[in-house]
Write a sequence for this structure.
């Protein structure tokens, strides 16, 4: 275990505990943690086990998933701008999820919601890879992402506006910005298997991504199957992003910011960046979810607001640097 | 004259058998006075129901489309017999009304335009208390030249309300919980419905006298004896899904919960008696369970 892993793990534990201790109900840390672990009768156990625990667990899982997916895509495309949110994968996953919910498919089959989001995400990843090409320039990658995000966002808004439910149209902002409020253990069980499976697929790319830094020919000479890597990346990313989006909406910029910040600490080796970004992504999302609850305890400030406030300036910085490199 | 069959099913189910003769008597009262408006159009769900109760035969020529939807309207069957409007200035102008009744929350631009076109508009405040209901009936009666009918409706409403009023020393504690975690406090019509039925409102304990967003955690910590949730609309929404959260089921845990039927809760009309009746039933069930 490297020092970076240790530091990130420590940070993660601290943030996880903080996330469990913060919320609109004013209960003191000692009794609430006791209620969480020991259980027992009473409302405090319900608050801790059924409201705060699933929220913190989802922050951990989804943040980790988005960090990992960002690192894997950036490594594979060798492009620091690849983030599942920016290139439209989250948006297409949200469209899949909204379609499943509004058509009732999500209630007829317990795996309906995550499977539909996953299908949306697969279409999104494939479309981006097709449009941007295997070694696409930053420009074509971002343009493809904007087009796919816009299309998926418009269709999501259309489906929600067509819903007979008067509340549905207001939820466009949830699907585009994401939130962890009022989630339950049901949502954890929906997302968990897909995130674990997808993460395992993405983690298996570690050696291949390191080899790819030497170029595709060198990687193939080292026995890396590029076609297989590509498929693994598509389904791994779709599984983690799809499951995350299905339960928490599209949360942007985690997959952009975290790999960028951590890259210098892993000697720019994309394989090692995978684990670091998973831990870092989880820490960033937990922190963001603590911030939204600290700013507006009683209201549902969307997570995407905070992640974008951190991520968008960095995105601008990256674009600026990309332009400098080009000249 | 409207036959007794026009009453919604729930009226005969919830209320006592005295209900139907009372309403029919009210609906067959005297025709409008000579100088009263003859072509009245109502464009708000709640003013529609007040107007339908109070207006003389042929006096009311159109109500809003929302009133024909049994989900939100206690008089959907009656409303379906009227031409329906959608609250647009153009269609209402073409009906050539001599009085338009709207709510104070009806789209301002539409009301202003009707005003500019020289059509008298009566704006009715929404009811915030049970007492407001009598005032609204009287106000509508005056505007329509049906004072006597309005007064008999008020008298009957108050008699019935008096019969329902029954308070115990120890009221069960109830929480109203609708879409997005919205709750209604004591200073709202829904809050008064609860207290008239002998239930205490946990929103007051949480400092939400006017109502507002009650976080799920705060609801759980308040540990109410019963949770009364809204009835979801067709289609799905995250806003309403919060009432299906496992902690709501855990809070209820074998004790009876209840649903708020929008049609009996939303508008300040005598139909709130149905909501009070349902809540009083809930209170009895809760108290029987405790014994």
């Amino acid at each position: 275990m490297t020092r970076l892993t240790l530091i990130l793990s420590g940070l993660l534990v601290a943030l996880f505990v903080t996330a469990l201790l913060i919320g609109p109900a004013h209960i003191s840390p000692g009794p609430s943690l006791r209620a969480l672990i020991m259980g027992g009768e009473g409302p405090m156990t319900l608050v801790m086990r059924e409201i705060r625990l699933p929220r913190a667990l989802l922050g951990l899982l989804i943040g980790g998933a988005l960090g990992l997916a960002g690192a894997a895509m950036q490594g594979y495309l060798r492009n620091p701008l690849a983030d599942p949110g920016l290139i439209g994968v989250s948006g297409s996953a949200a469209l899949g999820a909204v379609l499943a919910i509004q058509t009732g498919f999500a209630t007829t089959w317990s795996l309906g919601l995550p499977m539909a989001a996953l299908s949306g995400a697969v279409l999104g990843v494939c479309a981006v890879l097709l449009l941007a090409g295997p070694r696409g320039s930053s420009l074509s990658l971002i343009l493809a992402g904007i087009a796919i995000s816009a299309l998926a966002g418009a269709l999501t808004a259309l489906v929600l506006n067509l819903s007979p439910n008067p509340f549905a149209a207001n939820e466009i902002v949830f699907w585009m910005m994401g939130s962890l409020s009022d989630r339950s253990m049901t949502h954890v069980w929906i997302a968990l298997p897909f995130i674990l499976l997808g993460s395992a697929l993405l983690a298996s790319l570690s050696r291949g991504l390191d080899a790819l830094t030497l170029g595709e020919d060198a990687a193939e000479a080292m026995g890396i199957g590029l076609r297989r890597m590509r498929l693994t990346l598509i389904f791994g990313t779709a599984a983690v992003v799809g499951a995350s989006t299905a339960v928490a909406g599209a949360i942007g910029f985690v997959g952009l910011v975290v790999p960028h910040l951590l890259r210098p600490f892993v000697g720019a080796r994309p394989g090692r960046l995978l684990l670091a970004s998973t831990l870092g992504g989880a820490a960033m999302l937990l922190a963001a979810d603590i911030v939204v609850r600290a700013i507006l305890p009683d209201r549902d400030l969307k997570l995407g607001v905070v992640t974008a406030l951190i991520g968008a300036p960095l995105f601008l910085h990256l674009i600026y640097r990309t332009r400098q490199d080009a000249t | 004259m409207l036959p007794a069959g026009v009453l919604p099913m729930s009226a005969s189910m919830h209320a006592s058998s005295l209900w139907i003769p009372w309403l029919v008597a009210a609906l067959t009262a005297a025709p409008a006075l000579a100088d009263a408006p003859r072509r009245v159009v109502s464009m708000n769900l709640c003013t529609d129901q007040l107007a339908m109760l109070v207006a003389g035969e042929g006096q009311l020529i159109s109500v809003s489309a929302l009133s024909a939807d049994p989900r939100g309207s206690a008089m959907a069957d009656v409303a379906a017999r009227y031409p329906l409007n959608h609250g647009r200035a153009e269609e209402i102008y073409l009906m050539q009304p001599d009085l338009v009744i709207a709510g104070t929350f009806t789209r301002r631009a539409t009301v202003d335009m009707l005003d500019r076109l020289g059509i008298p508009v009566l704006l009715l405040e929404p009811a915030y208390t049970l007492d407001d209901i009598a005032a609204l009936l009287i106000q509508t009666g005056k505007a329509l030249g049906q004072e006597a009918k309005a007064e008999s409706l008020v008298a009957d409403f108050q008699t019935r309300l008096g019969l329902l009023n029954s308070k115990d020393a120890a009221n069960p504690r109830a929480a109203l919980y609708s879409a997005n975690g919205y709750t209604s406090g004591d200073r709202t019509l829904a809050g008064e419905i609860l207290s008239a039925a002998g239930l205490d409102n946990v929103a007051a304990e949480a400092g939400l006298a006017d109502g507002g967003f009650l976080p799920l955690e705060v609801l759980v910590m308040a540990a109410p004896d019963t949770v009364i949730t809204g009835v979801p609309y067709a289609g799905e929404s995250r806003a309403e899904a919060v009432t299906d959260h496992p902690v709501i089921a855990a809070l209820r845990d074998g004790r009876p919960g209840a649903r708020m039927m929008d049609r009996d809760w939303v508008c300040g009309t005598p139909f709130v008696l149905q909501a009070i009746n349902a809540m009083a039933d809930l209170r009895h069930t809760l108290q029987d369970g405790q014994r």
